[in-house]
Design goal:
Low-confidence stretches: none
Strand content: 5-15%
Shape: globular
CATH superfamily of the largest domain: NAD(P)-binding Rossmann-like Domain
Number of helices: 8
CATH topology of the largest domain: Rossmann fold
Strand order of the largest sheet: 3-2-1-4-5-6
Largest sheet: 6 strands, parallel
Order of helices and strands: EHEHEHEHEHEHHH
Distance between the termini: 44 Å
Helix content: 25-40%
Number of strands: 6
Mean pLDDT: 86
Length: 239
Amino acid sequence: MGVRVALTGAFGYTGGRLLAALAARGESVSALVRSRSKRAELSSSGVRVVEGDLTEAAALARLVEGAEAVVHVATVYRTAGHSDDYYRDVNVGGTERLLEAAARAGVGCFVHASTIGVHGHIEHPPADETAPFAPGDIYQETEAEAECLALSFPREGGLPVTVVRPGAIYGPGERRLLKAVCVPLGVEPPLHRRRVDFCTRSRAFSIEKARRRLGYAPAVDLEEGLGRTAAWYREAGWL
């Protein structure tokens, strides 16, 4: 039996890849799932499924029961139709509720996935984790608030917390970067100012700390990764 891990965000691209990696290592995983229709898909792979969301303290308590580690990936990410209050309730309030549940359950490790977006535009790349916060929208603002909350929690709640700030997620299976392409003018979504801004700003960061502390080294370089991504888009008929 591996480490007992509680995971949020199991159906996003990042969470899905993480779930697959944990399963491959033989870890025992519990996942928070909002959609009942997706329960069977996870249950068949041996994952313990907990129905609910980040606004439900009772569901979070069930999720972390017996867990040795929590990996928090779930977030509201730039989806239309949500108020600022909704972003704050899920991204900040949900993180706080999950931290409290993990502390009460005696969890030994809490990993919080944030975003490099909390740093905004980087004037002189590559930057590192010491770069100042400069969030540019409500998603980035609430992610910055959530990670500050998470990092202050160990002092208040006795729970060891680590924050990671992933860069742009790309590769076969991920379609977010496809949206600046506006596939041969089927035009979803339109190319607007924020998307142009996203695609023209530099977000280059040093991985030195991960290399030093975790022994991390990328298995795929940027040129090969972009090539694989473009090839997958072509195979799917999107380019």
